[in-house]
Design goal:
- The structure holds two protein chains of two kinds.
- Helices cover about 40% and strands about 20% of the residues of chain A.
- By secondary structure, chain A is an alpha/beta fold.
- In chain A, α1 packs across α11 and α2 crosses α11.
- By secondary structure, chain B is α/β, with parallel strands linked by helices.
- Helices cover about 40% and strands about 20% of the residues of chain B.
- In chain B, β1, α2 and β2 form a beta-alpha-beta unit.
- Chain B is globular.
- The chains are: A alpha/beta, B alpha/beta.
- At the A-B interface, α7 of A face α7 of B.
């Protein structure tokens, strides 16, 4: 990718607005106010075309309630119980580029995504989650994994998570992202299996057995993200406080990290399910309108070249 | 200056205060002659614990002046080993050597919790230094003789012994390669996984005094051309000083191949006890015994 890397969500949406990218998003059942608002904004800014699948009357009434112009979207009138399967089919057959969860339970939605015959997850592919965080106090975007899908990743899963995150960072124009494998300290402690796994992963990258990136672990958050602390501690690490990607040892750690940042550090986020053959957006109702908008933007960037 | 030939150990020792060796059950010509050759070149003093009459007759037969030694009479092998260990513990010797006693009994005397030479939790391991005509410097390898299947903690201990031995040979920052079948990391192969863990520990300063990399195949460690052809990015690249083997079969096969087919000479010692211990076997050459004594003398604090 021959352009400067994208270091903020504003740069991301700016890039999409200037580009010729226009991605077709199929939304399984309409959405809440924040979701439809974010979608409408993306359509208005020209990088999204959206189809809402579901009961036409119901969708129109939500739009009316939320004061969103329904003409911004194509509405695909279909019985709600068939909407997800149809939306998945549209994406699978390239009629749409991105699948998005609307007002439907996550379980039902993911079941359709993971369906062996008709879903979007290739056989034997690991499903995971990577999320880009914009933190006012950090000088660039920070990609983290996995805050949402895999509870306690094993070695294979950590390897896959690392690859997904590197792939996403590549899309942002970061050719060789710096990956920090996060723990409580930089020391190897065989009693803490994740630290041993990190040693293996770093060596696998050294030996060219994994995606191309600059990687080190175990590292704590300071060594990963704070250049001053990294030099003070005198630990020799190529990441040295300038991480692009943080790989966490458990869902609790990753989830708490980003929620803490959203709560106290005004962080915004955009995340996507990983492993699917096309981008799949699953947003939680608690996310802000801004995060939802960034999430849509992220899916468009990721859909480019799929 | 790093030593590149075993005989250089003797030169270094000749410039130092003599170390005091205690031989456990020195009832054989092998032990007595090896001790005497070290005494003759002025690198050690020796106490022989064993049957005084037998020792005297061996000395006469081999033209060795009995006055070269201090002799402590103890005709029983186990008692002699315990006596030798006791002499060390009393400060009357700097390192130990095995005589005509089985390795088992000798080790038991060292390992005895109350009267032995081992600190609680210490790992006893065997370090071999090999001089091979086909390699430009010494190879310090382990464990080829004591620990059959070292676990991660034992491997870390072995790594530290190899590094310490390299330092005692004047190699300031030795390169330590951790051997596996390939330089590719294979998580399901414990030798490969442990190697990656140990090399990261070295990066983090949890193992110090060496450049450590692994997993590596033997070819990448000792042959620069192989490393070049395979394009392995390793600081060791065909220039290793130390090799940490994943198990005794690999290590033992290596040193025996080197000596029997590769024309190599060697010296060896046991580390992990409070003092170095020589564990030579009757099959060892005179020169190997002398080098082992020298290595132990160099390894004394």
């Amino acid at each position: 990718m021959n352009r400067r890397s994208i270091t903020s969500f504003r740069e991301l949406t700016g890039f999409l607005k200037r580009s010729t990218i226009k991605k077709h998003i199929a939304v399984a059942l309409g959405g809440d106010k924040n979701t439809l608002g974010a979608l409408a904004r993306s359509v208005n800014e020209g990088f999204v075309k959206a189809t809402l699948l579901g009961d036409r009357k119901q969708i129109l009434s939500v739009c009316d309630q939320e004061k969103i112009d329904p003409l911004l979207f194509s509405i695909y009138d279909i019985a709600p119980e068939l909407a997800v399967q149809e939306a998945v089919r549209m994406v699978k057959t390239d009629e749409a580029d991105v699948l998005m969860k609307g007002l439907i339970g996550t379980d039902k939605f993911l079941k359709a995504v993971m369906d062996k015959e008709n879903g979007l997850l290739p056989p034997k592919t690991l499903m995971s989650y990577v999320c880009a965080l914009e933190i006012p106090k950090y000088h660039k975007l920070l990609f983290i994994t996995d805050p949402a899908v895999i509870p306690i990743p094993d070695l294979e899963q950590k390897i896959a998570m690392t690859s997904y995150a590197v792939n996403m960072a590549n899309r942002f124009g970061i050719a060789r992202p710096k990956v920090a494998l996060i723990s409580g300290t930089e020391k190897i402690n065989p009693a803490l299996p994740s630290t041993s796994e990190y040693a293996l992963i770093s060596k696998m990258v050294d030996r060219g057995q994994m995606v191309d990136c600059i990687i080190d672990g175990p590292l704590d958050i300071f060594l990963a993200c704070d250049q001053d602390k990294a030099s003070i501690k005198g630990v020799q690490t190529p990441v040295a406080g300038d991480a692009d990607i943080l790989v966490f040892p458990s869902i609790e750690a990753a989830n708490s990290f980003y929620k803490g940042l959203m709560l106290w550090a005004q962080a915004e986020l955009a995340g996507l399910i990983q492993g699917t053959s096309k981008p799949v957006i699953v947003m939680s109702r608690s996310e802000s309108a801004a995060s939802k908008y960034y999430c849509i933007a992220l899916s468009c960037l990721m859909a480019e070249g799929f | 200056m790093p030593i590149t030939k075993l005989t250089q150990m003797l030169d270094i020792l000749q410039g130092k205060a003599k170390r005091r060796m205690v031989a456990a059950f020195a009832n054989d010509a092998h032990t007595i002659c090896a001790a005497y050759s070290a005494i003759k070149i002025g690198i050690i003093e020796a106490t022989l614990v064993g049957d005084e009459n037998i020792i005297k007759s061996i000395c006469e037969k081999h033209d060795v002046p009995i006055s070269a030694f201090r002799i402590v009479h103890e005709p029983n092998d186990v008692k002699a080993a315990n006596k030798a260990v006791a002499l060390i513990n009393q400060g009357e010797g700097d390192f130990l050597m095995k005589g005509l006693i089985s390795s088992d009994k000798y080790m038991r005397a060292i390992l005895n919790k109350e009267t032995g030479l081992i600190n609680p939790g210490a790992v006893l391991s065997h370090v071999t230094v090999i001089e091979a005509p086909a390699y430009s410097k010494l190879l310090i390898v382990g464990d080829v003789a004591i620990i059959p299947q070292p676990d991660l903690n034992q491997k870390i201990a072995i790594a530290n012994y190899l590094i310490k031995t390299a330092h005692s040979l004047g190699i300031e920052k030795p390169k330590l390669g951790i051997q596996s079948a390939s330089e590719m990391t294979m998580p399901k192969l414990s030798s490969s996984a442990d190697a990656a863990i140990i090399s990261k520990m070295a990066q983090r300063g949890q193992i110090q005094g060496a450049i450590v990399d692994g997993p590596l195949g033997l070819d990448i460690m000792i042959d620069p051309e192989s490393a070049e052809i395979k394009g392995v990015k390793s600081e060791i690249k065909g220039d290793t000083d130390c090799i940490l083997f994943p198990n005794i079969e690999a290590g033992n096969t290596f040193y025996k191949t080197m000596t029997k087919l590769g024309g190599a000479e060697l010296g060896a010692l046991v580390m992990g006890a409070r003092v170095p211990a020589v564990l030579s076997s009757r099959g060892d050459s005179e020169l190997t015994k002398l080098y082992s004594i020298a290595l132990a003398a160099l390894g004394c604090n």
